[in-house]
Each structure stands twice: as C-alpha cells, then as structure tokens.
Amino acid sequence: MNERDFERAAELTERERQHALATHQQRQAQRRRATVCEDCGDPIPLARQQAVVSPYCVECQGYNDRLNHR
Ligand SMILES: [Zn+2]
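Structure tokens for the assembled complex are given below, as produced in the milestone run.
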C-alpha cells in the first residue's frame, strides 16, 4: 500500500477502511505465497515479489506474455 492509498483510506468510513485493509492483507498473503515460480519452480527474487504480483519468474512471465499477445 503506497502513501496515496493510505490518504484515501483515511477518508473512507470505518467499514470501508476495514474492507480495504482486509483486501490489502489478502493480496499480501497471496503475494507471499509466490516465492517460487509456478511454472519452472525457480525462486522468485524478493525485489520482483514486491514489485509485481505474479506467480511466475521473469523468464516464464515473459514467455506467458508473448503467448497471450499473439
Ligand atoms: Zn519460471
């Protein structure tokens, strides 16, 4: 969650804030699970885990992107 998200969250009602927080925590939990590539099993660098939400390593992500854009 970046600073802008925090500012926006502060403007929401308590219920909306709780929901946003739960969604955020869910995303973080999903992100934590993807420590290795789902495709090849290679470990995903921590920097990549934090930068993008993807269950794939850079190589497999690039491969999948090429397939999807064909
Ligand atoms: Zn991979």
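Residues 3-68 form one domain. The radius of gyration is 16 Å. Further analysis is deferred to the final report.
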